Amino acid sequence: YQRRVRGTTIQSKMGATASLQGDQSALRTHIQNEFERLRDPEGSHLALSQLIQIHAPNDVKLDLTHLGTLFVLDSDHSGVVTLPELYEFAQFYQQQSQALKPHECCSQMQAYCTLAMRREAVEQGTSVIKNWIMRLVSHNQLPVTFEDMPETEFVSRDSCQILHQILRVQPLYGMDFQSFFDLLQRTGEEMNLMALEDEKLDDVVPTVVLSILISKFVQGSMDLMGQFGL
Predict the structure, then answer these.
(1) Residue 153, SS3?
(2) Global pTM?
(3) pLDDT at residue 16, as a whole number
(4) What does the alpha-carbon distance between residue 99 and residue 121 come to, in Å, rounded to a whole number?
(5) Residues in Cβ contact with 4 at an 8 Å cutoff, skipping those fewer than 6 apart
(6) Whole-angstrom Cα distance, residue 120 to residue 190?
């Protein structure tokens, strides 16, 4: 079995056969129930804040806040995930897990997915990853503008908090969310994009500030993997 991620192929170690067969499988039913529970009534996909609320079955060891996992799950890199993409990823997960010990499954899946993301960056450029993360953020909650600042788009505090989580800012850099958010806002002020004394801007950050942060984060991460020969 092979899963294609825009030019990247991830193949099961043992060529395990698919175990998701038909609409009645327990896992497929579970996925559909979770999708229906979380999606907007008129929606046909899940955005980032909905995705990370998915309750996996007890025997599925998976972290949906892991960036590489989200990258592979969102196979067309649209910034949202559809039900067919969830089905496809579940099949991929089951086939990979058959070749792994249970206690290794989560970490090995993260390794596979991180390498898939790394390959994409090498083949297509790091802008592919950066633009995809920006789509995750913008589809999670639409950017907002203000009448007196019509040319500047802002991202909500809630979306910034999810970004702080999926970029692993606390474990990697020792920065809690409030410190992270304060840094983003100060950067916005230094770029003359916002005034911190303006109360209506208390819970937003300029989109361009996030774009710069994400670009630097992705480039730094890819450079580090390159130094390790990955």
Answers:
(1) strand
(2) 0.83
(3) 32
(4) 27
(5) 75
(6) 33
